[in-house]
Every structure is written in C-alpha cells, then in structure tokens.
Write a structure and sequence with these properties.
Blueprint: E1 27-30, E2 36-39, E3 42-44, H1 49-59, E4 66-67, H2 68-76, H3 84-98, E5 104-107, E6 110-113, H4 121-137, H5 141-153, H6 166-192, H7 196-209, H8 214-226, H9 230-247, H10 254-264, H11 300-311, E7 319-324, H12 331-341, E8 350-354, H13 365-375, H14 387-398, E9 404-410, H15 413-416, E10 427-432, E11 443-446, H16 452-463, H17 465-469, H18 472-481, H19 486-498, H20 504-510, H21 526-536, H22 541-550, E12 558-559, H23 560-567, H24 571-583, E13 588-591, E14 594-596, H25 599-613, H26 616-641, H27 664-673, H28 675-684, H29 691-700, H30 711-727, H31 731-747, H32 751-764, H33 771-787, H34 791-807, H35 811-827, H36 831-848, H37 851-868, H38 871-887, H39 891-907, H40 911-924, H41 930-947, H42 951-968, H43 972-982
Helix pairs in contact: 1-3, 4-5, 5-6, 6-8, 7-8, 7-40, 8-9, 8-10, 9-10, 9-42, 11-12, 13-14, 16-18, 16-19, 18-20, 19-21, 22-24, 22-25, 23-24, 23-26, 26-27, 26-29, 28-29, 28-30, 29-30, 29-31, 30-31, 31-32, 31-33, 32-33, 33-34, 33-35, 34-35, 35-36, 35-37, 36-37, 37-38, 37-39, 38-39, 39-40, ...
Length: 988
C-alpha cells in the first residue's frame, strides 16, 4: 500500500444513532477491509480466519437466517471437513460469547445476526451512495461528492481481507467492483466541478491498476483535456486502442472513439458536462455584495434607471452599466443598493471586487479573475497563469449562468474588460472616478452630488428628526458646507449624532471656514478634500496625528501591532485611536485587528502630513519604526524556523522589539498574513538611511520566496532593492540584495540569473567585511552547478562554503552546504560519501531542533538512498520531509519531494505509484519552480507512464520536456532526444 496516503486502523463512522444491543452496548462491524467488530469502540476478537468467514457470511445477509449447509458451502465450498457442522456450531458459540446472545441468534436450524442497518459499514456505504445519487439528481454535485467520499472512506484496504472460502471470494469481487463504480462516479463529479487537474493523478494510478477499464480511460482523457494537455489525452486513446487490440482483439467502445474525435476538434462543449445544457464546473453560488446601508436616501431616478437596465440581462444581451463621479459622491453606495434590489434577476450569484482604481497600485485583472474563479468553485490548480486564459475560463464558467458582477472603483476600461462576463443572462455594474467612454456597449451614468432635499433627508435620517426640525436652516448650512456629497454628509452627521451636547448650529459654525484642497487630485475632485477636511477637522489631536502617520504606510492594510509600532504607542492606546478613526469613517476595519484606508482618504492623510502638520523628521521616524517592527518580528520568525542560524546576529539593529512567537505555526501565520504590507514596507524603504534594514528584512523573510503565493512579489521587491542599493552606491546593501535575488531566481528555476547574481556577491565580498552573503552565495553557486551538471565547480563552491560557514560558526549554513555537497558526490558516483554527508547534515539540524531545514536534509538523504537502492529508507526520508513541507506551506519543496518519491517508485518498479506522484508534483508546482523543474517531472512521468503501458502519453510528456530543455538550452535535452530516437516506430 502507498504509505503516503495509506489508511489507518479506525472504527467505521456511523451516520445515525448508534445500534445498541439489549443491554445498551454499542456494536459495530466492518467488512470493507479486515472483518472486525467493536463494542463501545473497543475491538473484539473475531477468531480464526474460518470463524471470520462465518461472521462475514452472516453480516452480509442483512439479518436473514443462513442455514448450516449454506454456511458450510460459504466457508469450505465443495470440500468441507468431516466435522463441518460441529465446527460451525463451535464458531457460532464462540462468536455469541464475544458478541452477545441477542446479537447472534439461532433460528430454524441456522444462524442470523440481529443488528441495525447502521451497525455494518457496507450498509452505511450503501445509504451514503443512495443519498449521493439523490443529491446529484437534484443538482447538488458538491454534496454528492462529499457523500461519495464518505462512502469510499469506509474502505480500509481490500474488502474481507484474508477471509477464506468461495463466498468471501465472490463478495470480495462484488465489493471491489462496487468500489470502482463509486470511484468512477465520484471522479465524474470531480470533473463536473472543475477539479480536473487533481483528478489526473488518481486516474493515472487507477488506469494502471485496471488497464482494460475503458470508463477510467475516458475520464482520464477528459481530465487531461480540461487541464490543457490535449496531446496527452489523445495519447491515452492511442494507448487504449493498442492495448485492447493486443489483449482482447477488439476496438475501443464507441463512446471512447467519439471522445477522441471531440478532442481532435477541440470541442468547446467538452469543457462542460455532456448531460447539462449549461456549463457548471462550479456549483458554488457566490454572494459577495457588501451590505447595503440601512439609511439609503434619494437617487430614485438612478435606482429605477439602473434597475431596469439590469433586468434586461434576463433577455438576449448582457447589461453593462458604468457609474462615474467624484470621490465621495456615493457611487459605491448606489451601486450596492441597486445590486441588492436586482438580486432576484441573478439567482446564480453576485460577485464583487474593489479594483482600487484611484490608488497607486490598482488591482491586477488576473488577480481579480483568480479570486472570481475561486469564488465560482474553480480549484486553484485549474486556474491558468495568463490573463487571457483566466479571462477565457471565467467567461466559460459564467456561460449559461445568471451572475451579477459589481466592479467597484475601477481605474479605466482596460482594467475591467477582462472582467466582463460577455454572455446573456449576466450583467456588470461598474463604478469609477472616470467616465468609461471607451467601454463599448456600456450604459453610462454620471452621478452628481445630491440635491439639497436629498442631502437634508440623509442628514436627518442619521442625526434624527428631533434635532433637525428645530434647526432646519443650520442643517441646510451643514449639508451645503459638505458640498452635498453623501460621504461628507455621512461623516458630519455621524459626528453630530455621537455628540449629544452639540447643536446643529455648533456643527454649522465649525464648517463655516473655507477648507483647503487636495493638491494631488484633479479639479473635479476638489470637493472630496472638503469631505475629508470635514471629518479630519473634528479629530482630537492624538487622533489626527494617528490619521496622518498611518496614511504614510504603503501596504494594502496594516495590523494593530504594526500600527502601534508606527505610532510609537502601546497596542491598547493605538487600538483606541484606530477604532475612533473607524467611527469617523476615515479608516476601515478590514478584519479584526487590521485596518485600511480608502485610497482617496490615504492621499488626503498624506497631504496633511506633508503640508507641514507633521515634520519631515517625524514622518521618517514613523516609517522607520514600522520598518523596525517588521524587521525585528521577521528576524524572530527566522530564528524560530532556523535555530542556530547566524543571520539574526548580523542584521541591522532595530529600535523596536517586534512580536515574539513560541510556536512556529503562529510565526508562519504572521509572516504569510503580513506578506503584502511587509513587502510594501521594503519597497518604500529605499533611502540611504533605511536601505540596509529594508534589505535585511527581505532576507529575514526569504520563506516568502518559496511559498508560491508570494514568490513573484518577493522577487520584484528584491530586484527593486538591488537597484536602490546601486543607486545609493552601498556595497554592503548591494551584496545582501543580490543574495536575496539570487535565492528568488534559484527557486524560480532561472539559474543563469541566479548564477550571475551569486558570482557578483563573491566579487563584492573580497573586503571580508560582511562574510555571510559570500557564504550563501557560494552555497547558491554550488546548487546551480548541480542543476547545470558542473559537478567539479559545484564541489569547489560547496567545499569553500562549508569552510566559510564553519569559520563563522554558522551550523545551519554548514548543514545546508553539506547536504548540497551530498548531491554533488552523488552525481560524481560517490554514493557512500553522499549518504554520509546528508546524514551529517541531518545530525546538525536535529541537534539544533531545525524542523524545516531538517526536512531539506532528509530530502537530500532520500535522493542519495534512492541511488543506493535503499528504497524503503529513501521513501521514509522523503515522506518525513513531505510532511514538514506541507505543514510549513512550502509548495516548491512539497512538489519537489513528490517528484523524488516518483523517482524512488520508478526505481522500485512501481510505475503506477510513480505516475501518480509525478502527476501530484505537476499540480503542486503549477506556477512555481520554473520550467526546468517541470521538464524533470515530465521526464519521470513519461517513464512511469511507459511502465504502465501508456506509451503514447509517455511520448507526449517526453516531447514536452524536450521542448522545455531546448528552449532553456539545458544539457538534459540530449538525453531526451536519444530516448525518443530509441522509441520504436510502432510506439512513436
């Protein structure tokens, strides 16, 4: 059994009230695996194999009586022993003592087991399968999948394992066939809900185990086709046709041949279930609209106009409406209100996104499409990388469904075009500060300020009629001072409502002075500043300072702890200020303990800080404190993940202690949740005074480069900081920036760039002032040399790295270089020393309690042991590493370990498991690791597929790998080319 996913001993779960015997004892039985019984969760002895055969025969009769002769035939068939009847009675007596007399009863010369339906795992599985059929028939495919997975989860290996007799053999065959049928149904559902990439791995293993089962081949072809692997899908058909002809002398069934033709035609209909009129790869019904405000006021004509427009989406066209207006005019409020009223026209759901169009970094369409596809039920592994592919999949997913898409705060038409559904039945509602005149077919709506009557009505609803009726003129003065802008009115009214001692006249007097303007905004947006001035002018001094300083940070949001550091306050005082700013609507609470600015409010806050209200020295100090907070905390996370690593001793000093963690999972959670703000802080800190700390922060947060989710942003930040270091002519900073960028490029598979950067570090390190970058650069050079088959160079670099790490008493660095040197020795045929070096690395890591990097050492040991033929130990080593990598969210290393497990399975002649592992590696490594690593996985997958008789599909994998290697100019191309030449013409 595959140890990576093998089941553990367990008591079968029950779905209804537990079956109890007469004395109230809970009895449960299992035949979907070894024949077992439990009383109140405690395992009972079921006796000898023949006694278990008797128990199984009784259990599978569903409470009906089995005569003695029937039981004799079941256990011994045509050759019963002379004392068969006495033996049956002995077995029954023993079982009655183990169970109880009320459970195993004598009846009409035979025996029966009286137990409730839910006491036997087979019955539970049958009920789950029946419920799954009902759920699927009603259209609830997610529930059907869940139920089938529960049913299949009841199996614990082979049914009736080790139970003798013809009856058990027949039942084993029947139950295995049923298991396969359930699996096929569940896989069919997987494809319907868009989990085709994940299904490929399981289907590859199943087709290897059941090569003549055409339904599995059909599902595999569809899964490959929907994963963008058309050539492999066609190769599966060719392999199947050849196998059926060789083994049975028949052609594939018509359904399989028709599927091949559809794939050859690139049939678009194949992207959705054949038995449904509209595509539904994801049955999820998103409901993402923000809450509408309870005091929505006015805008009746706009509500009616937009509502009528959206209603037309039920007809033959897609409705697109675009609202434009200045900031604070109420575009979002109106759009959300209209969207809620129109929900009945869009029963399949509503999508919403803030496109951040008025900010410095508008949301990328591909990022938004990824979020939308996930909300629609598309698995991560099924989401393409490019913008065009994501947009095409998005439109396909929406085709035939009635979805409303609210695109809030758009930058321009170019940003939203990929986000438009494009088919009848759907509608898009867009808000933006600019008119979308270049958005073809859009219904344009220009939203102006409120009328005086509407403005007064909104003000009254928030403040209360009692206070307004006696001061109507003062109230009119207030809304006029607000420029009749809804946001300004809401801020003013909220402040007045919160201050019962104020009269409306007091507020009007406060607003009588002329307000300054936001210099950064265009003339049409001048009123927005008056809106923000209104709220800002009413802040207490400490609140105003917090508002100004927090606006300086570039991140998408900020945590309470980071805000406290920036403000130089304790957490409780900072929270009081932030919550007060939330109350004034100047700051939003993004989530518990996290805060963010509306993009225009951030611009205003910065203008307040930069126009002299906050001295330059204080602004710089605030951002410096934020950088210190991130650096100190990230250094603590690094130290927890890498105990004994000397980097933390050679980082720039900080004036803030940062957060501290005792649990590595909590530390990881912090690092990944802070990735956006942290990397934004790095990029914002490019001046000479803070440059070194920012680059050190990047180095301390290097786990982000290997996580997959943040790799590209990390690489961009490293590249930016390298340019900044060179601009500042800071060699110290340049060396460290080069190390971080080399590490990022190494993880991304861009070895030539990583090599060049590491060599530059070595060249810049001759002064010996900062030896640590040189140590790691040598380590990088050694790894790159391994990948480029320059083994003598690799040995030279890594030997020097080990010496330098030892000089610096950096044990984790030494262990890393030792493990990498193990790879070099392995490539040079020195297997014994390769194993010894890897074990030496593990010993160092274990002595330091180094969990994550210890997994890297076990990865290296597994490679060496595989080469030595110690496959069992190698697999154990890989599985230990895999568990840590998954636990640490290191997708790159998770994928590479699956790849190495596939290699080990291949060496051990277990091609089916190798193919399954290689498929999983491809799925995990999607979008990370680089093309060279993908080529390696495809090569191994090709060998595994060839080993299970899928030679046509193997050829496709090898040809794709060859194209990758040729494009990269890699040495591996020659080996693949030779391999393809060796393939016989029949197989080619």
């Amino acid at each position: 059994m595959d140890r990576d996913i093998g089941p553990h001993m367990r008591v079968p779960e029950q779905r209804a009230p537990q079956q109890r015997s007469a004395d109230g004892v809970d009895l449960r039985f299992s035949v979907l695996g070894p024949v077992r019984a439990w009383r109140d969760g405690e395992a009972l002895s079921s006796g000898s194999p023949q006694q278990r055969a008797l128990l199984a025969a009784l259990l599978l009769r569903g409470g009906r009586t089995a005569t003695a002769s029937e039981l004799i035939d079941a256990i011994w068939g045509d050759e019963p022993p002379s004392q068969a009847l006495a033996t049956i009675r002995t077995y029954a007596s023993r079982l009655r003592k183990v169970l109880d007399p009320q459970t195993l009863v004598s009846d009409a010369g035979g025996y029966a087991i009286r137990a409730g339906r839910d006491a036997l795992d087979v019955t539970v599985a049958q009920e789950l399968a029946a419920d799954a059929d009902k759920a699927r028939a009603s259209g609830d495919r997610c529930q059907a999948r869940t139920l089938l997975n529960k049913a299949l989860g009841l199996w614990d290996g082979e049914a009736l394992a080790s139970v003798p007799g013809p009856y058990a053999e027949n039942q084993r065959t029947r139950l295995e066939e049923w298991r396969l049928q359930l699996t096929e149904t569940r896989l069919d559902l997987d494809l319907e809900v868009g989990c085709h990439a994940e299904a490929v791995s399981e289907l590859t293993a199943l087709t290897a185990a059941h090569p003549l089962r055409e339904r599995l081949r059909e599902l595999l072809m569809v899964a490959l086709y929907r994963s963008g692997r058309q050539a492999e899908a066609l190769a599966v058909y060719a392999d199947t046709r050849r196998l059926l002809a060789d083994e049975l002398g028949v052609d594939p069934r018509p359904e399989l041949a028709q599927l091949q033709q559809r794939i050859l035609r690139a049939d678009e209909e194949l992207a959705r279930p054949a038995d449904e009129p509209a595509p539904a790869p994801a049955p999820m019904r998103p409901a993402q609209l923000p809450a509408t405000v309870p005091d929505f006021t006015g805008r009746a004509s706009f509500v009616r106009e937009l509502g009528d427009r959206l209603a037309t989406a039920e007809g033959s066209v897609m409705a697109v409406s675009a609202l434009a207006g200045i900031g604070g005019v109420g575009k979002t409020t109106l759009a959300v209100h209209v969207a809620h009223r129109a929900r009945r026209h869009f029963p399949d759901g509503q999508l919403y996104v803030d496109l951040q169009g008025a900010g410095a970094r508008a949301a990328e369409p591909e990022t938004v499409l990824g979020a939308f596809l996930r909300a629609l039920g598309t698995a991560d592994s099924a989401i393409p990388d490019s913008l065009d592919e994501r947009a095409a999949l998005y439109r396909s997913t929406l085709d035939g469904r009635r979805i409303l898409v609210l695109l809030d705060n758009a930058h321009d038409a170019a940003q939203i075009r990929p986000l438009l559904p494009g088919t009848a039945g759907c509608a898009a509602l867009v808000t933006s500060r600019v008119r979308m005149v270049d958005l073809a077919g859009a219904h344009l709506v220009d939203l102006d300020v409120m009328s005086p009557e509407e403005a007064l009505q909104l003000f009254t609803r928030i403040v209360g009629e009692e206070r307004i009726n006696s001061e109507r003129e003062a109230a009119l003065d207030v809304v006029a001072a607000c420029g009749f802008l809804p946001l300004a009115i809401r801020i003013a009214a909220s402040r007045l409502a919160a201050r019962r001692t104020w009269t409306v006249s007091v507020l009007a007097a406060k607003l009588a002075d002329e307000r300054r303007r936001l210099d950064e905004l265009q003339a049409g947006d001048l009123a927005v500043k008056a809106t923000f001035e209104l709220g800002y002018g009413q802040l207490e001094p400490a609140q105003a300072r917090a508002f100004r300083l927090l606006g300086l940070a570039d991140g998408p949001d900020i945590s309470l702890a980071a805000a406290a550091a920036l403000l130089n306050l304790d957490v409780h005082d900072a929270e009081d200020l932030l919550e007060a700013l939330v109350d004034t609507s100047l700051v939003e609470s993004a989530a518990p303990g996290r805060y963010r600015y509306h993009d225009l409010v951030r611009l205003y806050a910065r203008s307040c800080a930069e126009r002299g209200e906050e001295p330059l020295e204080e602004r710089e100090s605030a951002l410096s404190r934020l950088l210190d907070f991130y650096l100190a905390t990230a250094a603590g996370v690094y130290a927890l993940e890498r105990p004994g690593d000397r980097l933390v001793d050679h980082l720039e000093p900080t004036g803030h202690a940062g957060l501290s963690f005792t649990d590595r999972h909590d530390a990881q959670d912090w690092l990944y949740s802070e990735a956006g703000p942290l990397l934004a802080c790095v990029r914002q800190s490019s001046g000479p005074e803070v440059l070194r700390r920012a680059i050190d922060l990047l180095w301390a947060a290097l786990d982000l480069a290997e996580s997959g989710a943040n790799s590209k942003q990390y690489e961009a930040a490293a590249s930016f900081m390298l340019s900044a270091a060179r601009t500042c002519d800071d060699r110290h900073a340049e060396r460290r920036a080069l190390v971080t960028l080399s590490n990022a490029h190494l993880g991304a598979g861009r070895f030539a760039q990583a090599d060049q950067e590491a060599l530059q570090v070595v060249e810049l390190s001759h002064d010996g002032r900062d030896p640590l970058p040189n140590c790691w650069a040598l380590n990088h050079l050694g790894v790159i040399a391994i990948y480029q088959s320059r083994h003598e160079d690799g040995e030279k670099y890594l030997t020097q790295a080990i010496e330098d790490f030892r000089t610096g008493e950096n044990l984790p660095g030494e262990a890393s270089a030792l493990c990498n040197l193990s790879r070099v020795h392995l490539a040079m045929g020195r297997t014994a020393s390769a194993v010894a070096l890897a074990r030496e690395g593990i010993e160092i890591y274990e002595g330091l309690g180094h969990t994550l990097r210890g997994a890297n050492a076990r990865y290296a040991l597994g490679i060496a042991l595989t080469r030595c033929g110690e496959l069992s130990e190698a697999t154990d080593s890989f599985l230990e590493a895999l568990k840590v990598f998954r636990d640490s969210r290191q997708r790159l290393w998770e994928g590479m370990t699956l790849f190495r497990l596939a290699e080990a399975d291949l060496v051990g002649d277990n091609a089916a498991q190798a193919a399954s592992k290689a498929e999983m590696a491809l799925t995990v490594l999607r979008g990370i690791g680089g093309e060279w690593r993908r080529g390696n996985v495809l090569t191994v997958l090709g060998h595994a597929l060839d080993g299970i008789g899928q030679s046509g599909r193997a050829l496709v994998c090898w040809r794709e790998a060859l194209a990758i290697y040729d494009d990269l100019g890699s040495d591996e191309a020659a080996g693949i080319r030779d391999l393809l030449v060796q393939v016989s013409p029949e197989r080619a």
